[in-house]
Design brief:
There is one protein chain. This protein has helices at 2-11, 14-69, 71-75, 89-102, 124-135, 167-170, 203-256, 273-363, 369-400, 412-430, 449-465, 514-520, 526-536, 561-566, 568-572, and strands at 107-111, 141-148, 151-161, 192-201, 407-410, 433-438, 445-448, 472-479, 485-492, 540-545, 551-558. With 583 residues, it is α+β, with helices and mostly antiparallel strands. The longest helix has 91 residues, at 273-363. The protein is elongated, with a radius of gyration of 61 Å.
């Protein structure tokens, strides 16, 4: 639906949009003006009705006052004798109002709350007005629109106050009969005497009001239409036509190259500074595009040829890299096979040498210290050489990818026991204290027993090798926080390792420096093998060491190998730790 809406909007031309916008704006303004005109005319009509009512009331009050001022002249004869004629202000006012109402559509009468004549009793509108006058002495008029049958009328009620002329018939004492035969009310000056009520039909006024509204709206409509036509013509000449000319020019540029657009059409349109500047920039752009188009095909051909040559070079380099990789792969396989064969062939005679050395020791007398010392040297170097051969074999298998895990439940106590039996004698001959400790809570782990033993054995023998007489080597195991890993730590008080050598000693056939090689021996495979075996078991090795302060090697192994397989990808991103190696 959104795409359809955008497509529909893009199909509508600028002129159509301008017309639609002008019509919508005109309709809104016309409605607003109509409402405003109606409200204004309604208020004007009401003001006219109020003013007309006031004039009628003022004229009736003038008649009333005239009778009151001439009352004595009416009731006294030329001889000065009093002769009441029955003609007083109230009678005259009511009579005039009745005659006025009879001869016109207007209606006028006098009323009060408690009239002497029941015919003057107030209706609902007059009652509301009289109650308002009584409650608010300052109020003098009340008006509203109401219905008289099916006819809409304007009701106007004006308050009448007690004057000096009213006191003769309506003053005190209360109850005394006045000249008309009615008891006096005991009014005082300024009291509410009643009200003059005027009723005016509004049909003529409403007709005039609607006529004025229609005339004003029609006049406004004509003005708005003229404005819209002027705006449309101006927009068409100053915007729509220039845009159409630019669009046509762009189409031709896309089809045939450069194209210039004229600043003026046949009718003299576009004659503004903005369109002149715009067309000048367009023509400049068109000329530049013409130059670019002229060279574009040549540039494309050149770039295509360059790309072809680059692809050929890349293909040749790729083939060369594949050949080099294949050769390196074969050479690495040959190297691994050679190391495995040589190491295997070396292991058999080395084992025989060690066995015959033990047999010779049994046949030599206890007093022959020189022979025993020489045999011990043979055995020591034979074990060192055998350890180197084993490390080479293990490394070759790992590199060849033939090393496999043999998962089973492993008791770390059994591993520590075998390592201690093999290492404690060597440590004792060097005068190094060797101890093992397993913390409470260390569980059986699902791992490869032989690989765990090789890791601990290499670290322990390495620590003993680089610890001088009087030092100590402590091997401990504990369960890490969270229960997912165990930590096997080997701490010694040996020579230590500089911090800048921590990573170096994990490389194969690499030691800290040549002085340690001459003094302690070794092949430089111990720590590399520990690192590789730890990684195979899903663990890592870490190192904390400094020269002269000993070293701490910590191997972290997962308790459950299945958990390791689940977390293997995350382990790859951690990076391997560092540990003690053949230095």
């Amino acid at each position: 639906m959104r795409g359809w809406g955008r497509s529909l909007g893009s199909d509508v031309g600028l002129k159509t949009k301008i017309i639609g916008l002008l019509l919508a704006s005109s309709l809104f303004l016309l409605c607003a003006f109509g409402v405003w005109t109606y409200a204004t005319q309604r208020e004007a009509t009401k003001a006219e009705l109020v003013e007309t009512s006031r004039v009628l009331v003022d004229e009736m009050n003038a008649v009333w006052d005239f009778i009151s001022l001439n009352q004595d002249r009416i009731d006294y004869t030329s001889d000065g004798l009093y002769e009441y004629k029955g003609l007083h202000c109230a009678i005259v006012g009511k009579s005039v109002a009745s005659l006025f109402s009879r001869d016109s559509e207007y209606s006028m009468r006098f009323t009060k709350i408690d009239p002497r004549n029941i015919a003057n009793a107030p209706d609902a509108v007059e009652t509301a007005a009289l109650e308002m006058f009584s409650a608010d002495p300052g109020a003098s008029e009340y008006y509203e629109f109401s219905m008289r049958g099916d006819e809409r009328v304007f009701r106007y009620v004006s308050a009448m106050k007690v004057t000096e002329q009213c006191m003769e018939c309506h003053g005190g004492p209360v109850g005394e009969m006045d000249i008309t035969g009615y008891p006096k009310e005991g009014w005082e000056l300024g009291d509410l005497a009643g009200a003059t009520s005027v009723t005016i039909p509004t049909a003529l006024y409403d007709s005039n009001m609607w006529s004025a509204v229609r005339s004003n709206v029609l006049f406004f409509l004509v003005i708005v239409a003229c404005m819209c036509i002027g705006i449309y013509v101006a927009l068409d000449r100053l915007i729509a036509r220039p845009i159409a000319a630019l669009s046509s020019g762009l189409t031709r540029v896309g089809e045939t190259g450069a194209h210039r657009v004229s600043f003026f059409d046949a009718n003299g349109a576009y004659a503004t500074s903005e369109t002149t500047e715009l067309f000048a920039r367009f023509n400049e752009m068109s000329e530049r595009l013409e130059i670019l188009y002229a060279d574009l095909e040549l540039q494309v051909e050149e770039r295509t040829e360059q790309l072809r040559r680059a692809n050929e070079e890349l293909e040749a380099q790729r083939a060369h890299v594949e050949r080099v990789n294949e050769r390196l792969k074969n050479e690495n396989k040959y190297k691994s096979d050679f190391l495995a064969i040589v190491s295997h062939e070396l292991r058999t005679p080395l084992t025989s040498v060690l066995v015959f050395a033990e047999l010779m020791e049994e046949s030599i007398g206890k007093d022959d210290d020189v022979a025993r010392s020489q045999l011990e040297e043979v055995r020591k170097n034979g074990r060192i050489l055998l350890e180197m051969v084993d490390n080479v074999l293990e490394t070759a298998r790992i590199q060849a990818g033939s090393e496999r895990l043999n998962l089973e439940l492993v008791d770390i106590a059994d591993v520590f026991g075998q390592v201690e039996s093999a290492t404690s004698a060597v440590a004792a001959r060097k005068g190094v204290r060797f101890s093992t400790c397993i913390a409470a809570g260390v569980p059986l782990v699902m791992s490869d027993w032989e690989k765990v033993r090789r890791i601990v054995s290499n670290l322990a023998s390495n620590a003993v090798k680089f610890t001088d007489e009087g030092g100590s080597v402590d091997v401990t195991a504990l369960l890490c926080e969270g229960g997912e890993e165990i930590a096997i730590a080997v701490r010694d008080t040996g020579i230590g390792i500089p911090e800048d050598k921590h990573r170096l000693i994990f490389e194969r056939f690499t030691q800290e420096n040549m002085s340690t090689v001459r003094r302690y021996g070794g092949s430089g495979l111990g720590l590399s093998l520990v690192k590789d075996l730890s990684a195979m078991l899903g663990g890592r090795v870490e190192l904390a060491s400094s020269p002269g302060k000993g070293s701490l090697f910590t191997v972290f192994l997962p308790v459950d190998q299945a958990w390791h397989e689940h977390e293997k990808d995350d382990k790859k991103g951690r990076g391997h730790g560092e540990g003690h190696a053949d230095r």
